Amino acid sequence: MSEKKYSKQHEWISMEGDVATVGITKHAAEMLGDIVFVELPDKGKSVEKEGQAGVVESTKAASDVYTPVTGEITETNQSIADDPGTVNKDPEGTSWFFKVKVKNKSELDGLMNKADYEKFAKENSN
Amino acid sequence: MSVQKTALYDYHKSLGAKFVPFAGYEMPVQYSSGIVEEHKITRSNAGLFDVSHMGQLLIEGNESLATELEKIIPTDLKEIKLNQSKYSFLMNEQGGIYDDLIITKVEKGFIIILNAACKNNDFKIIKNSLGNKFKLTLHKNLSLVALQGPKSSEILEKTINGVSSLKFMNGNKFSYKGKDIYITRSGYTGEDGFEISIPNELVEDFSKKLIVQGVKPIGLGARDTLRLEAGLCLYGHDINESTSPIEANLKWAISKRRREEGGFVGYSKIKSDMNGSLARLRVGVKPVGKIIAREGVKIFSKDDQEIGLVTSGTFGPSVNRSIAMGYVKLNFSKPGTKVLLEVRGKKYEANISELPFYKKNYVR
User: Nearest Cα to B264, choosing from B36, B71, B75, B131?
Assistant: First the structure.
C-alpha cells in the first residue's frame, strides 16, 4: 500500500492499485472520544470527493465521515459497525471504514502528508 | 455575561479535564480516561462530580414559610421532617415546568438545589411569590460536589464520621476542618451517593482527600449517560416550560395530598391531566440495533404516523446498548410497543421501554 495521505476532514487514505482504503485519523478518534456507533456507506455507492460517506457517533455527538476522493465504494468494514469501540483502538489500521475505487488519482495530490496533517491537526484542535 | 468558573476549575485542569461551556460556566465534560470509563467507574466504585454551577438557595423562615412555598412547590412541605429532601418542581400557570429541584428542610428553613441555567429565573419566581417576608440567599460562597457510586459511603465515612448512617433523601450538618458542611444522601446517577455543600475555600482540599482514596473525577459527559440510564430527566431537554409533570411521568413526585387538594401554581393542568385529558407521556425507548436516537429524532408508529419525539438519547455503557427517552401519544406509551425512529432520513425499529434502563438499590 502507498504512503498514507490525510484530509482536512480528518480522514486518512491509502492507495493500492486503483482502490483506496479510507478511515478516520487517530487525532479524529481522540477528539470524538468513545465511539459507540458507525454507519458505513452501501457497497456500490458512488461517492464524491468531500461528500458524506458514513457517520461516526460518540457518547456525546454524531459526526459525518467524508471521502477524500471520488469513486465507487467496493468494500466496507463491517467489524467496526459491529464493535464501534475498536475505532478508538486502531483507527489508522484494522479499523478502516471503506474501500473506494478511485476515479481520478490526481485528487490525492491535494491531500496532506503525515507531517503536514499533524501540524494541521495541532493548529485546529482546541 | 462572562463565562464563570467554579472554585474547582484549576483543580479540574490539573486532573486533565476537557472543558465545555455549560449554563454560563466552564465545566469539565470529561477527564483523560474518557466518558465510558468514567461512567463505569461510577457504577463500580465511586466518582466525584463538581456540580457547583447549580444554585443553592437558602430560604429562611418558620411554619408560615412552608405554607407559602406550598403555593409554588407541589410537595408536602408542611409535613416534611427536619433534614428530609424531596424532588419537586416550579411550574407556570399552564402546568409547564420552570425547573426541577431538590428541596430539603433545614433548621433555618429550606435549602433548594436548582439547575444552573434556571437558578436566576427561579430566584425571581420564588421571590415574587414570597414577597419580602422571608430572607432568600442564593449562595455564591458555597460549592457543591457529588460523590456517587457503590463505594461512596465507605469512602466518605473515613473523612466525615457518621455520614454512612444517612438515609436516602435525607441530609444533615457535618463538620470539615472546623467549618459547617451540609450533606444529603442523593444524586443523579442511579447509584448510592452524597451531595456535599461546602465552603469554596475548602472544596479543593476536600476533593483531594477523596481523590487520593481512589475516587475518580467525573465530567458532565458521564453525568449525562449515567442519569439517562437511571431514567432521570435533564431540564431543558426532557422537561421544560411546555411539559407538565404528569406528561413527564413525574406524578410520583406530587404527594397524594397535594394532588387532591391542589392550591399550587399549575394545578389545573395537573388535575385535567389526571382526569383523562393526558395526551402524551414520557417513556423509555430502546432502539433494536445500535443506532443512536438523539434529541429531536421523530418517533413513528408501525403504520408510519408520527407519534412523538426523542428528548435525550445516547449509548448506555452499563446497559451496553443504545437508549433514549422521549414523549409519545398516550396510546403508544405501553412498554413493548413497537415504534420506528427516523434518524438521518431512515427509519429504524425500536421498542417503548420501562424506565429506568438501569436499576440499583438505594440505601433507604
Answer: B71
> Which of B270, B293, B269 is CA-nearest to residue B283?
B293
Chain A positions in Cβ-Cβ contact with residue B317 (cut-off 8 Å): 34, 59
Mean pLDDT calculated for residue range B171-179 = 97
- Which domain range does residue B87 map to? 56-138
CA–CA dist B336, B25 (Å, integer): 40
- pLDDT (tens digit per residue) in B233-263: 999 999 999 999 999 999 999 999 999 999 9
Pairing of strands A71-76, A98-102: antiparallel
For the ranges B93-107, B116-130, B165-179, B347-361, which has the lowest average pLDDT? B347-361
Nearest CA in chain A to B220: A60
For B54, counting Cβ atoms within 10 Å of its Cβ (0-12 exposed, 13-18 middle, 19+ buried), the class is buried
Close Cβ partners of B74 (under 8 Å, ≥ 6 residues apart): B88, B89, B91, B245, B253, B254, B255, B258, B264, B266, B267, B270
Nearest to A62 among B37, B294, B317 (CB): B294
State CA B154 to chain mean position distance: 23
Tell the CATH topology of A5-105+113-123: OB fold (Dihydrolipoamide Acetyltransferase, E2P) (2.40.50)
Whether residues A55 and B29 touch (CB distance < 8 A) is answered with no
Q: Which three cell numbers stand for residue A60?
A: 456525546
Facing residue for A36 by CB, picked from B37, B315, B344: B315
| Whole-number Å distance between alpha carbons of B65 and A118 | 62
The verdict on a CB contact (< 8 Å) between B36 and A59 is: yes
Tell me how many residue pairs between chain A and chain B have CB atoms under 8 A apart: 43
Whose cell is 451540609? That residue is B182
Q: What residue in B sits closest to A36 (Cα-Cα)?
A: B315
- Residue A33 with chain B: CB contacts under 8 Å: 30, 34-35, 221
Distance from CA of B22 to the nearest CA of A (A): 14
Co-location of B45 and B85 in the same domain: no
Are residues B43 and B172 located together in one domain of the fold? yes
Of B35, B292, B322, the CB nearest to A33: B35
- In residues, how long is chain B? 364
Listed by start position, the domains of chain A span: 5-105+113-123
Cα nearest neighbour of A85 on chain B: B36
Q: Percent of chain B having pLDDT more than 70?
A: 99
Residue B362 reports pLDDT greater than 80 = no
Name which of A30, A34, A80 to mutate to probe chain B: the one with the most chain B Cβ atoms within 10 A of its Cβ.
A34
Instruction: Find residues 58-77 of chain A whose CB sits inside 8 Å of chain B.
Output: 58-62
Asked if pLDDT for residue B269 goes beyond 90, the answer is yes
State whether residue B63 is helix, strand or coil: helix
